[in-house]
Amino acid sequence: MASVIVASLKNLLARLPQPRYRRRHDTPALWGMAHYSASTPAKPPSFSDTLALPRTSFPLRRDPKDIDEDYQKLSCDELYKWQWKNAEGPLFVFHDGPPYANGDLHMGTQAQFMEIFDSKPLIFSSYVPGWDCHGLPIENKAMKDLDMDPLKTSPLVIREAARKTALREIDSQKAQFRTMGIMADWDSAEDTYRTLDKHYTIRQLRIFQKMVEKGLIYRQHRPVYYSPSSRSALAEAELEYVDNHNSDSVYVQFTLPLEQLKHKNPLFRNELEGVSTASLLVWTTTPWTLTANMGIAVHRDLEYEIVKATDQALEHAGQLFVIATERREALQNILGSIETICSFTGSDLVGCTYQPIFSSSALGQSLPIIHASHVTSQSGTGLVHCAPAHGAEDYLAFRSNGLLAGTGTGGMVCHVNMEGQFSSEVSEVVGSDAAEQIVGKDILGKGNKAMIALLQQNGKVIKVQRIQHRYPYDWKTKKPVVVIATSQWFADLEKIKSKALTALEDVHFFPEHSRNRLESFIQSRSEWCISRQRVWGVPIPALYHIQSNKVVLDGPTLGHIISVMESKGVTWWDGAIEDFVPPWLMTEEYIPAGSTKPMSEIWMKGQDTMDVWFDSGTSWSMLAEMGVGRGQDPVAPRKHDADMCLEGSDQHRGWFQSQLLTAIGSKDEKEGPVSPYAGLITHGMVLDEKGKKMSKSLGNIISPMSIITGTPTNKKDAAYGINVLRMWAASVDYWKDMSIGPTVISQAVESLRKLRNSARFCLGNMGDAETMKNMERVPKSKMGLAERYMMNELYTLEQTALEGYRTYDFPKVMNALNNFTNITLSSLYFDITKDCLYANSLSSIERRAVVTVLEKVLETLTRVMAPVLPYLAEEIHATWKKDGKSVFMTPWTPLGEEWKDAQAAEDMSSLLALRGDVLVLLEKARAAKQIKSALEAEVDIIIPDSLVDNKFVELLRQEENFLKTLFIVSDALILDEGSLGTSSPAWVHSHTVDIRGTDESIAVRVRPATLHKCPRCWTYTRPENDHLCGRCSDVIVEQKAQMD
Q: Is residue 833's pLDDT more than 80?
């Protein structure tokens, strides 16, 4: 409960002068008090000059911009360089996923950055910032800036524009990172990296060369995810799945001649007598792939049946359909009422043939029915349309059945071009007249609808259904992708994924359950499509022999090409083909004797670029070059290149994987599998305050810079500074999806305010450096219960923080810190010690004990908050120490175990429970307008005569003098039942408190104070005929003696 004096003093804090005490000639009130008597004039003297009111230059509030400007350089750039020269602890290498250099930083980036400091000794920390610089988004941004069409712009112009765009965005992001308080050597070219740098590209190609030499890289024509909006193949890691994608699905029929079925099983002859055909009923969500149909898959173990449609109201009444038996009930919504003609297993269908859906098909007069393990009766009809060019499962099923050729396109049919439109080759299947309706139309838009219309014209559609389902989208363009067969480069993961999983066994995961996610992604992959059809990227330097279509990509040729790039300073894109073709490819096998053709007409450079995940995935390899990688620390040999990597949960199928796979794939076979990182920290996605994903269309994107510096165009967006944003980032459960918005930011602001006020209280009451230098600290043996309890709680806080930082559980640290400052400090210790701090003699042991505790509290609080709130910690340190050094330049020395005091915690817990009962009674008196301040009251604790040898009663008697301080009343007495007397107070509020472990209880009563208000300290402890209470009189005399 806050008293009147507390409320008044809070109002005075901002107005107090800087000196702690005024000198003698400035303090006439002291002389007046020393001789105060009945003859003193009526106007009471001022006692404020005699009180040790808090004084500090540490302001209640500061402009966040000023704070950031004052401490950014000290706590970031200079500190990073200093620790490289001075830190003596073990090397700690932090490696984070490089941000994409194509715009301002987003909230997810902020969630990734939190400096990690260990306890003693000071660790030797390495953090090398880098940027991912290649790929479509940068290419698109460059073309947008130039207002040019990339399809009509030369690759040379695109690459130069993209390079300039990336470098410009890097400079912008670098400034933003500095504003965020990220500690690094930002100005150093050696201690930062860009994936576009020549030496980075060369190192990446060397890793690629090793994987080629190990037989891990191959080229194949097969179905892959393809993004028409990006005009490039994509890997699984580059997909986002949208749950509410809409598609037009169709139920279509293929004609099955029944004679072959009758031949397989003579029993069907009677049941199907007089019937020559039936329709294979197929459901597909991609009608545009039906021109590429090469077969229909069934499951040999499923039961199928031929049913007859009997609903005369429907066009297909009387037709026979083949469906899976388990789908009969569901399909009556499509076919209407039906009756079963005969049943059989899928094995009876396997090997039969059916007629193509288009009569003009160049595929022939019949197509096969095959077995495929992926066919189920869970949805559709139990029969699956197979287009190997447009589905991985179809492709694998056809390949396992030996239905695809081993070279070239494999005989796969694909009528989709690189723009995602029907190509002219579709006329070979649908006929030239029908082709006019669909050629050049987008297969995901008008082309798909035109295909359905064409099928309807041919009488092949039973029903069209609009469905909503989960569908893959391009993670960069946010547009749907398709699956088409193209010739791409792949990394064979089957050969290395078991080693990759073994390497993960000694990797630490934070949180631990994220291990399962990464392992499952790796386990499920068999290959990695690493080629992209982009202009801006690291090349896959393959040589194509024009006449024979032979592709050369082997270790020696790659070695020659990379050496040329290094020695001549050229890139794959601008170097001449003559430079890159090695001597062994200039033999008569490739160049006929006497040929005068230029090399450019014999060999051609490949135009594919590498997946950007391969770019960033090889970043681990630069750490060794920088002297901080695997095996680099002479003090403690390092097993891994990085101690810790940090990224979002989506990177379990991205950067976390690509690092591991390139490291394992390029290592010597003799080496055991070792991960490039020792630990992984995974954070969730940042959502808006309503839990929705941030997007431009929803208008709910929150920029980290708008929180830090405000928005110039919107005065409502206040500038909160970096401390608030970092407070939020460290307070949320970052391993889950986290929300941010005005309410959450306000909570962070309030938490920061309370931390700042706690530091200000300590600084204001400790005094200046000279005062603290001359003050004799109080040892634990002479401290009261409150001080011993506070030190135990401080020790617990620090141990919790150290454990939290060790396990990267930042919310654990911040929750403990906030609870300590808000509850233990502000609501308890600060409240109960103000009277002692302000009114006691500076030399009293009670006050020195409190200041001793405040000094340790400030030291520990500063250390605990520093990794999360470096600027606030620096400001506190600068105000307190005034040494011009960073707070991080002194090792964190934790409190010793001697401050751990379980008994003090137990005793204080018991008294705090009693305090709760007292505060309730005081509130009743206040509500009844019997008191305004708790200091107007006294507390009696009445012990029954029958309660003897009780631990709690012994504690009460032992701490009787402390109780008035704990309750913030003028006095508290321990009374026996016989000591109550017969006098009746003007008012009284009482309550009984049960004694734990006994059947007894004690009585607690609150009544008016018996003495009078002291005009100096405001406690009701002054005898009627005295001018001050005894304590204040002694202090005044002591102060006068010091001045004399």
A: yes
CB within 8 A of 357, min separation 6: which ones?
Answer: 252, 254, 290, 293, 455, 458, 460
Note down the domain range covering 559.
541-607
Torsional sign, CA 541, 545, 546, 549: negative
Judge if 595 and 631 occupy the same domain: no
The reply to whether omega before 779 is within 30° of 0 (cis) is: no
Q: Are residues 244 and 128 in the same domain?
A: no
Whole-model pTM above 0.85? no
Q: What is the dihedral of CA 592, 598, 602, 608, to 10 degrees?
A: 160
Euclidean distance between the first and final Cα of the chain, in Å? 39
Q: Label residues 1009-1019 b or e (16+ Cβ within 10 Å = b).
A: bebbbbbbbbb
Cα dihedral value 860, 863, 865, 868, nearest 10: -160
Check whether residue 476 and residue 546 sit in a common domain.
Answer: no
Cα separation, 423 vs 429, whole angstroms: 12
Rounded Cα distance, 328 and 338, in Å: 8
pLDDT tens digits, residue range 716-750? 678 888 888 899 989 998 888 888 888 989 999 99
Locate 1030 and state its tokens. 């005894």
What is the DSSP-derived secondary structure letter of residue 717? S
CB 253 within 8 A of CB 281: yes
The answer to whether 938 touches 969, Cβ cutoff 8 Å, is yes
Beta bridge partners of 528: 491
pLDDT at 92: 86
The number of domains in the chain is 5
Q: d(Cα 988, Cα 477) in Å, to the nearest integer?
A: 74
pLDDT tens readout for residues 81-90:
888 887 777 7
Each residue of 339-369: pLDDT tens digit?
999 999 999 999 999 999 987 655 667 899 9
- In terms of Cβ atoms closer than 10 Å to its own Cβ (0-12, 13-18, 19+), residue 118 is middle
